[in-house]
Amino acid sequence: MDMHLKNLFARFHEQFGSGPGLGPGSGTCLLKVEGISPPFIKSLYRAAAALYRTNPWRRLCPVHLFGVRVGKDSDWSGKKQPFPCIQFIGGDGGDLGFYMFRSANDAKRMTGSRETIRVPNVEVFRVTYELESLMFPSNKKVVKSFALEVSGTDRFPVIDVARCNSSGGLQFRNPSLEELRFVYAFMRAISLVHPLLQQDDDACPKWSRVMKFEPFIETVDAQWPPEMAKGSDLVAVTVSHPPGQGFQEKASSTASSTPTKHTDPPRDENFMDLQLNYYSVGLRQCVMCEREVHGQQSLTCDQCRAVSYCSALCQKQHWKETHNTLCGLYKGMMEREEELEVKIFIFPCSADLPCKWLEALGIHQKGMWRRKCSCFSHCPFGLLPAKDGLWDSWGGLDDDEYPVDSPLTVGFLSPILLSGWLEYYNLRSLPLSSPVSDVLSHPLTLYYILTSLSISTKNRLLNGKEVVLHYLGPEGELDWMPAFAEIGHLLNGTGNIQIVMVGPGVPMNLSGTTSGISNRVRVNLVSGLYQEEAAYLSSPHVIVGLNCRLENYASWVDALHLIKSMGVPAFFTDQSEISCANAKQVLQSAGLNVTQPVTPNPFRSPVRNHGPCNNLPSYSNGFLFGVNT
């Protein structure tokens, strides 16, 4: 009898909860939402599953209220944010999910010490993760019909809007399409930023089990799924704790622009000192006469702060010749520097002196990092002496600081869609002190292009087919094959990729060789110019050139003419905005128009470099653009 009652109570607890929450799902169905499409339903469930994997309930309780702002007020009906206050429920028992409120005052009125208080005429947007066995038949049917992604092992999000009437009962309705767009952007953003919350030990009594966090505000760019993009693929989402943390919106902001942050994630003081030291002692080069001058003795333009000079005479001469026409452009680039900086990491992210940067991390002249400075420049690309073992490849980093060479089993067999570094680090349980993003920028940029930017290759991979990719101009990445193996794991059991790396940087003794770096990714190496070798290669589905520097090599012109005649989608990255502007001119001279506009690459290296004679922000794979897309 006791066992029977125990099982009965467990069943009751599963179905109705025991802590804050308004009870199980209401039976609403997303298929009844006017204007919704099956692809967007799939995107919603993927975003919900990605949030579930980050497990915010491990630290967050209903008392932790968050403010959220998606885009601009004018983007939404009534020119105001639909549900700008959010709380997570289930961290201390009961229903697992999150509630969204019309205001912080509504959230406070409904949040009791041990349960959710039913306040008449207050609407709550609910996302609850329910066990599949307890879901309504209509929701089960949607899950099976569209093969929606599971959250964890056996839960799926149930989405509705609840309102308490004057008698204490609950009324439910389906959310609108606009409200679903809002919650989608929130889920993408909160997955990235909630791990950045820092516990405030001084504000939390020792006897309390509830954490308190330092005031926090962070803005990230969330990518709309293709079926929901309206004019821009990205939208700026600002999350604050507690609600109401101030930010100001720039006068020139757009729907996807980033508000100015007033609070930055904390960083280790030693790392900050190291970064400042690198910048101050580095040698600069006069942009006019190319004379080298100590960083502290160089002059910079007072207007743009972007270019360096050895003397006032060179500065005046340069202004007369060219800088007077470029100063405004450079000033705009410098003002966007904060938006480009990847602020989540807690290792030093400035490498004007690469050897010293690598030494500070303990990885100088080790493994794949040997291509990050000039110490091994005498060794041809692809021919660095290598030891067996992933630990050696990653330069002896601790075992938890680099991705293991093992499959990922996440939900259904389908490529894992990623939108940025924090999502990837969470997926791989990597600490934000690990510098592996600097090397992984190349393979993950490649993966991002294949699964997010190129619709044709994404569909091929989803259908389990092979994608042939022509990779132009490889150099240092020829020694990074262990990092490229990560692409195979992210495919998550679906599709195959053949990467053909072709360029003059491939040594002749490696040309014609094939490397099966994983069971789903193989790499063929071809030495020579692309326009001369393309006729002998398998026809590509997509062409990629990373850190391409189109304006630096005359041989690119013939290759671009060939790409135009082939009509194959081609994507390029470059390190700075000025390089991208020059690249666009080269493309136009070859008769190609940029159809994928220049945007910051979410998988750019977080490590900033300065040019020898300018301070313009420069990141490996910093910007993405495409043609024939």
TrEMBL record:
Signal peptide: none annotated. The lineage of its organism: Eukaryota, Viridiplantae, Streptophyta, Embryophyta, Tracheophyta. This is MYND-type domain-containing protein. Pfam families: MSS51_C, zf-MYND. Residues 245-269 are annotated as: Disordered. Gene3D superfamilies: 6.10.140.2220. It comes from the Eukaryota. Keywords: Metal-binding, Zinc, Zinc-finger. It comes from Rhododendron griersonianum. Coiled coil: none annotated. Residues 286-327 form the MYND-type domain. GO terms for molecular function: zinc ion binding.
